[in-house]
Amino acid sequence: MGRTLAEKVWDDHVVRRADGEPDLLFIDLHLVHEVTSPQAFDGLRAAGRPVHRTDLTLATEDHNVPTMDILKPIADPISRAQVDALRNNCAEFGVPIFSLGNAEQGIVHVVGPQLGLTQPGMTVVCGDSHTSTHGAFGALAFGIGTSEVEHVLATQTLPLKPFKTMAITVNGALPADVTAKDLILTIIAKIGTGGGQGYVLEYRGDAIKALSMEARMTICNMSIEAGARAGMIAPDETTFEYIKGREHAPKGADWDAAVEYWSTLPSDADARYDAEVIIDATTLSPFVTWGTNPGQGVPLASVVPSPDDFDNESEKAAAAKALEYMGLTAGTPIKDIKVDTVFLGSCTNGRIEDLRAAAAIIKGHKIADGLRMMIVPGSVKVRLAAMSEGLDQIFIDAGAEWREAGCSMCLGMNPDKLVPGERSASTSNRNFEGRQGPGGRTHLVSPQVAAATALRGTLSSPADLEEKVG
Amino acid sequence: MDKFTVHTGNAAPLRASNVDTDQIIPAEYLKRITRHGFEDGLFAAWRKDPSFILNQPTYTNATVLIAGPDFGTGSSREHAVWALMDYGFKVVISSRFADIFRGNSGKQGLLTAVVDQDVVEKLWALVEANPETQVTVDLEKSQITAGDVTAKFEVDSYVRWRLLEGLDDIGLTMRHVDQIAEFEAKRPTFKPVTTA
Ligand code: SF4
Questions:
Q1: Maximum distance among all alpha carbons in chain B?
Q2: CB contact under 8 A, A24 and B98
Q3: Do B99 and A116 touch (CB under 8 A)?
Q4: Is A256 a residue whose pLDDT tops 80?
Q5: Residues 112 to 151 of B: which have CB under 8 A from any A CB?
């Protein structure tokens, strides 16, 4: 019987297999950041163990870093201690690191692909659940906890039980105004925040094949929000094109050998999945969340749902609680929801294509009165690329804030936070209570919806702009 | 890691589903670089509410948490497990756990016992009617007993063995360094390295 993409990558990394035990898998790339690593390095030190493969390990600073005045010492002493701990640990153990101020610094999941370090058929881990992003390249990439970080640092392997596989087949073509973000939000609303649990999701079908690498990363990034540890997309010409010529891409004969291997990875025609979900791309429209988990989403053109719209008691209760937290009334048109802050950034939508898409909508217009818009590139490279195209000026002219690279307002860990009751339209991936700051209210949106919302002041799609700004 | 065989203690009923790790421990507590002392961050936002279950004197010394389905979703932060353990919890019972959370728990020695939702409902009713109810979780028998409730629970067999033996994962893997070296010797040359 044929094998799926996930099974092929798995099989190629088994170091040891024994009855009744998890497989011991080799890890090709281990990405490290300041939040989930200090206790792992502590563990190594306590046990007198070195980092086994510093050459397969890479650290970057992202979660805690400010996105303004980055050359000053980090103001919050605890954030500073965490970043300092990472720097000291990397120096002591010989791990390469991109610190604040370095031209390669940025969000860990933006940095790996942009350097060409993320390649098809690899196993990639990081102490961060959005490691699933790297699956866009046909890598098996997943988040791990701090104990596992220590395990990988010490041995470059992980003991793991095989995952089940789920195909998410997206047939047809996405309508012109529908983005990868709308698609993944729709998928999560459909299968639920627990729907992917225990599975590796493989996104496939015509609509997926047509996506750029950056859009594929947006999709895979949010696999974890459907409960799946990993999401994957079969590598193809789009993938190879993206990798070719990047700093860590294979060169010369290695390139040919790599492409030959990568071309064997897509799932076999007779491969069997443990589950399949089929989606008709042509029926989709811009999609946003109204609640406090990423599965609580609706089409932008609809209304805030009522708890009565749900069949089971726990969903009804969750909806009522979410409406209260979000300060929303059932039946309100989504497009009437007024937002205070628009955040464009994160490892979901902080890449150059996202910035370009938003800039194209904003160009020549002003953001709504009293609204704050923050543009936070996912990496220094993205920031510089945007500046070389003049995107920064478009945002600044519109009245938006142009920031330095980092996780920023994706999570309330650095100075960029919502205040209690403040409402945001955010291109990030989590709308949990307090995620963007205690009491903050988050609507997850695409970069295009973020841009249109910034101009109109209420949740909007670019199509809604035609009457108003023109 | 300490061996886990049988645990008996008071239990707190947490009637909530989809308790994500941001609720178990908010991001602001993740900045610490030590491995202990996270008990103050446990359910920090909810604990500001005097009616929250752990603020009720009858449940403050609970060592077993009985939670709704989909416990531990969201961020991979292992701090969620540390916070639960630092607070004093030894066992969490739920009908469904998020994968990463369950994996993290197994590594630290926090037992995640999976039972049917109707067992959860019975346990909730029991400990709500009488907060002094002693809940016994027997890992050898994979069985929970409390009052008149007796139920089998599920736990991954490998994690169960490790918990019973008190073995740590890295030490186990280190037994296979030769096989790791063999694997490394055969890796294709086109695989990237992070060093220049
Ligand atoms: S941008 Fe957000 S989701 Fe991505 S790594 Fe940073 S905090 Fe995590």
A1: 65
A2: no
A3: no
A4: yes
A5: none
Phi (first) and psi of residue A197, to 5 degrees:
-60, 130
Tell which residue, B110, B54, B46, has the closest CA to residue B81: B110
The rounded Å distance from CA A364 to ligand 1 centre is 30
Name the DSSP class of A334. Answer: G
Alpha carbon A329 to its chain's center? 30
pTM summary value: 0.87
Specify burial of residue B171 (Cβ count, 10 A radius: 0-12, 13-18, 19+). exposed
pLDDT tens digits, one per residue of A5-51:
999 999 999 999 999 889 999 999 999 999 989 999 998 998 889 99
SS (H, E, C) chain B: CCCCCEEEEEEEEECCCCCEHHHHCCHHHHHCCCCCCCHHHCCHHHHCCCCCHHHCCCCCCCCEEEECCCECECCCCCHHHHHHHHHCCCEEEECCECHHHHHHHHHHCCEEEECCHHHHHHHHHHHHHCCCCEEEEECCCCEEEECCEEEECECCHHHHHHHHHCCCHHHHHHCCHHHHHHHHHCCCCCCCCCCC
Query: What is the spatial distance between Cα A268 and Cα A4, in angstroms, rounded to a whole number?
Result: 6
**Cβ contact B18:A193 at 8 Å:** yes
CB-CB neighbours of B192 under 10 Å: 23
A436–chain B nearest CA distance, Å: 10
- Residues of chain A in contact with residue B180, where contact means CB-CB under 8 angstroms, are 15, 24, 26, 155-157
Instruction: Give CA–CA dist A56/A27, Å, rounded.
Output: 8
- Give residue B103 CA to ligand 1 midpoint distance, Å: 21
Measure the CA–CA gap between B41 and B24, rounded to whole angstroms. 8
Nearest CA in chain B to A22: B158
Strand partners, B136: B8, B145
Say which residue the tokens 């005097």 belong to. Answer: B50
| CA-CA-CA-CA torsion sign (A261, A262, A263, A266) | positive
**H or E element: which one contains A342?**
strand A341-344
Q: Is the per-residue pLDDT at A470 higher than 60?
A: no
- Taking the centre of ligand 1 as the mean of its atom positions, its distance from the CA of residue A293, in whole angstroms, is 16
Cα–Cα distance measured from residue A33 to residue A40, given in angstroms and rounded to the nearest whole number: 11
